[in-house]
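Our collaborator T.R. sent over the components below with a one-line note: 'Predict the complex.' Nothing else. No constraints on interfaces, no templates requested, no preferences about which chain binds where. So this is a plain run: every listed entity goes in together, and whatever single assembly comes back becomes the starting point for the next discussion.
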Amino acid sequence: MNIPIILAATNRNFWETVVYLVQVGGKDFLQGAGKTILLAVVGTVIGCIIGFLVGIVQTIPIQPRDILVKKIVLKIVRIIMSVYIEVFRGTPMIIQAVVIYYGLQEAFGINMTAMFAGFVIISINTGAYMSESVRGGIDSIDRGQTEAAKAIGMTHFQTMFSIVFPQALRNILPQIGNNLIINIKDSSVLMIISVDELFYTTRTLVGTYYIIYPTYLITCVIYLTMTFTCSRLLRWYEKKIDGPDSYNLAGTGPKGLNEQYRRPTGLTMQMFNRKYNDQRSAMR
Amino acid sequence: MRYDNKTPVIEVQHLVKNFGKVEVLMDIDFKTYPGDVICVIGSSGSGKSTLLRCINLLETPTGGDIFFNGKNIMDRNTKVTDYRAKVGMVFQQFNLFNNMTVLQNCMTGQIKVLKRSKKEAEETAMKYLTQVGMDPYINAKPHQISGGQKQRVAIARALAMEPEVLLFDEPTSALDPEMVGEVLEVMRELVQNGLTMIIVTHEMAFARDVSTRVVFMDKGVIAEEDTPEVIFNNPTNPRTKEFLARFMHDQ
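Returned assembly:
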């Protein structure tokens, strides 16, 4: 069965082989790439959610007037979180994959599909990294923002969700992009638990057709396309969050924004200043 | 005293605040009645800002009690957020929410804390933005407007919560002299409307003109507290004299 294929391959020059591979393996490549992107995107999104949850808990202020139970519970939860971060940042993902997938099977008889295990592994791994990024993002927000929110009576959670997180998210967006790109590439280690993502598919194709270099070249191009597209999309999203550089004065905008609020009369800034300076010189 | 039969809005009793071993506030007693405009003056490091931040519980006092309309807010059962919603604060560094427009800055507290409808919040926000003369800029983000404009928005944001007391923490110290004018003008208007205010300031002329009482702080204690006429013309405490003399000399 394999022999004619090998012969067929050897009869082609390099580019013809590439075209041939795309013809016979194109569907497999696409399926593999689809699974890779699915793993990376879902893993990054869930990882970010984990990161933000850990970030919230780590920044809950403990005050002297809080009840003892709250203090103790918070302390314990924080210790668990630090252990989680240190363990999952400090061990290779490929080993985590084996331990979680095969280990849980052998030790506790927990069976899950390889794909599901893949989602879990990427998510908790990204979560560990994102927790630290989120912490950095929250720290980067000026304390005045939190104080102003508290001063108008917002609770810790209201402050976090409406003031701090939107700004922290903007600041760590480049880091989220980094994580997404790393996940696209590093999901390849999941071939160790036979998740049929792009790298696993590539190895299968190599094993089927005995064509090594062109197959990996195609894989390379597919990975690059995916990562480049993602980084551009994120850039575009960053710009969108930043909003336009200019703003319209109320009532002067092209759509007549907030026309009803237009002030018929009133002090301009110059008038303010003149009036004040007159008063000041009168005082002296 | 003309206040004897009224309950103070804010009453501070034996307030102590330590940062580690440094005693920043030592046994402060101090009352604010409805309609009062109290200016707190004193040199840097005398504890003025810390006092203001303790009143709003942005700093947790080390000891002492703070009463709001006769209710002790240092009590565990008092909800701090409810109290803060009734006591507005304007900061030296403006602290406008950077992720929101001018209008959103003035609406978010009303919606999230006071649970007002979006429409009501917008109307209230516009009312106060118009009062401070910032209504044309409602679509601007904080980084697009000047310092004086930011501070006027910050005042509108605090007013939109319709607080009983408004605290000002050196509202003009981060502004250049020209912008100081527009902010003080807005504050004068608030005084005329009868808002109760506690103002930490270095603007002596302003303090002399608008306040009902002036508090002079020195090294963590209230060195002298009296009407502006007495403080500025006839101070009894030698430290007050020294401070004011130096200040007037600089001017």
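Summary for T.R.: The mean pLDDT of chain B is 90.
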